């Protein structure tokens, strides 16, 4: 029997994830705050809902993918929220990047309704979402995660259990701290090379051939040379994640000098109006500082 899924949040990532569920034959009901994306998925066979509650009602699995803590509260709480629609036994999966504190609160609220909440953010930006090669890091009931693994693997390639509720959120913030720092480091290295007169293509070849090789260089290097800052993962969202990670590290008592430096750099990018571009657009901050483009 086909698992029934409610999917809420059809942004850059959510639209591709819901599309993969439909393409794999799942019975999917979708909701998005603006209806245009829902209508696009209707053409692929999705049912559409007028509220998160309606998208959740009668569904065995409910997945949410929205931008931040405030959006999650809007989606889950209130008379039209997810919790108003789910029944006992429903497995709720949030793949957004949110604070561990909020993830734990949602798990308790779900338990009070007889449902199960998993915080299951993903790694992999837009290309991985489209290719169905995301990696899910799951906090919460490991047996529930295993039971719905076919749903998750319709959108990704791996599911990793991280521990109790909130652990997926912690893992995602730690992971994205590395992503933010690595991307900033790549742009800083390119700025040094460009100011020193090194050709961008030659420098990228060196980076990819040596100890500086990284996923950041693989995903962003060629796009940087083309000055292509189309969104795979928005700068504003990276800044949001680094802010959450900064709060978490303070709570844990972990000194994070690289995190704080990188956060300041992305704040400069946001202040320069780059927030809706890809996070690699932080390169433009360096270009302002060195007075030239950094693609050679």
UniProtKB/TrEMBL annotation:
Originating species: Paenibacillus curdlanolyticus YK9
Keyword flag Cell inner membrane: no
Record: active site: 172
Keywords: NAD, Oxidoreductase
A GO BP annotation: organic acid catabolic process
Name of protein: 6-phosphogluconate dehydrogenase NAD-binding
InterPro entries documented for this protein: 3-OH-isobutyrate_DH-rel_CS, 6-PGluconate_DH-like_C_sf, 6PGD_dom2, 6PGDH_NADP-bd, HIBADH-like_NADP-bd, HIBADH-related, NAD(P)-bd_dom_sf
Domain 3-hydroxyisobutyrate dehydrogenase-like NAD-binding residue range list: 166-286
Family: Belongs to the HIBADH-related family.
Pfam family, one: NAD_binding_11
UniProt-recorded Gene Ontology molecular function terms: NAD binding; NADP binding; oxidoreductase activity
Ranges of residues in domain 6-phosphogluconate dehydrogenase NADP-binding: 4-163
């Amino acid at each position: 029997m086909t698992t029934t899924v409610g999917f809420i949040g059809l942004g850059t990532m959510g639209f591709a994830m819901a599309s993969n569920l439909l393409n794999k034959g799942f019975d999917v009901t979708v909701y998005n705050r603006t209806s245009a994306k829902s209508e696009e998925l209707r053409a692929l066979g999705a049912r559409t809902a007028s509220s998160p509650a309606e998208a959740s009602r009668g569904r065995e699995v409910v997945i949410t993918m929205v931008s931040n803590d405030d959006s999650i509260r809007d989606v889950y709480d209130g008379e039209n929220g997810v919790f108003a629609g789910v029944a006992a036994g429903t497995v709720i999966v949030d793949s957004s990047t949110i604070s561990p504190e909020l993830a734990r609160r949602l798990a308790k609220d779900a338990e009070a309704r007889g449902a199960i909440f998993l915080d299951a953010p993903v790694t992999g930006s837009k290309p991985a979402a489209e290719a169905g090669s995301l990696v899910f890091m799951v906090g919460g009931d490991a047996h529930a995660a295993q039971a719905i693994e076919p749903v998750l693997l319709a959108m990704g390639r791996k599911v990793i259990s991280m521990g109790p509720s909130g652990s997926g959120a912690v893992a995602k913030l730690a992971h994205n701290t590395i992503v933010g720092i690595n991307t900033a480091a790549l742009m800083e290295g390119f700025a040094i090379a460009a100011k020193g007169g090194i050709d961008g293509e030659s420098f990228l070849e060196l980076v990819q051939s040596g100890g500086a090789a990284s996923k950041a260089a693989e995903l962003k290097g060629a796009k940087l040379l083309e000055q292509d800052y189309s969104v795979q993962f928005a700068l504003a969202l990276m800044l949001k994640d680094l802010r959450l990670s900064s709060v978490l590290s303070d709570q844990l008592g972990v000194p994070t000098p690289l995190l704080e430096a990188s956060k300041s750099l992305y704040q400069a990018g946001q202040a320069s109006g780059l927030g809706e571009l890809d996070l690699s657009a932080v390169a433009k901050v360096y270009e302002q500082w060195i007075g030239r483009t950094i693609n050679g």
